Amino acid sequence: MTFYDEVGGRPTFERLVAVFYREVALDPVLKPMYPEEDLGPAAERLTWFLVQYWGGPTTYGEQRGHPRLRMRHVPFHIDPDARDRWLRHMRTALDEVQLSPLHEATLWDYLERAAYAMVNTFEPSGIGAGPQGRPTLEHRAAPESTETT
Ligand code: HEM
């Protein structure tokens, strides 16, 4: 029995992510970060990721490859404010899904640590990572082959 099975499988993660994105859609800081107007595909990716992480089918990996989540978030301006908003919406979602206290605490602990790890700037909007800020990883020059350090 995996954590995924214990909490009720994919439908539970679908509900969690649906509530989360319902809140993101109303968030003036987070909503504009999403490249697509329709949050449906983003919700689908997050659902498959969480399903895989907690022991369900590995569809995420088959479709998206290695998660490399910090790398994938580099284009977005994730400062402590964005992190706290993300976590607030996840908290709302977790409260609505109503898991057992142990499952809830386990999931929350993970989400909190993951969100803290995703912070990539402490600069005000426009100065840190992102289209208006410093170049994203893809645009950075490859290290010199003569580099010795
Ligand atoms: C801390 C604040 C965070 C912000 C502001 C944020 C924002 C975003 C944005 C704007 C996207 C692109 C939407 C898309 O096209 O999929 C994205 C993708 C994604 N995020 Fe986050 N995120 C945060 C934290 C997290 C955390 C903690 C996790 C995991 C627990 C996570 C998991 C994902 C996944 C799986 C994707 C799709 C990656 C892919 O396959 O392309 N995010 N996020």
TrEMBL record:
Pfam families cross-referenced by the UniProt entry: Bac_globin (PF01152)
This protein's superkingdom?
A: Bacteria
SUPFAM superfamilies linked to this entry: Globin-like
UniProt keywords, alphabetically: Heme, Iron, Metal-binding, Transport
Kindly give the InterPro entries that the UniProt entry links to this protein: GlbO/GLB3-like, Globin-like_sf, Globin/Proto, Globin_bac-like_CS, Hemoglobin_trunc
Heme as a keyword of this entry, yes or no, is yes
Gene3D superfamilies cross-referenced by the UniProt entry:
Globins
Keyword Heme applies? yes
Q: Where are the residues of the annotated region Disordered?
A: 126-149
Which co-factor is required? Answer: heme
Q: Which family does it belong to?
A: Belongs to the truncated hemoglobin family. Group II subfamily.
Which protein are we looking at? Globin
What is the protein's species of origin? Microbacterium commune
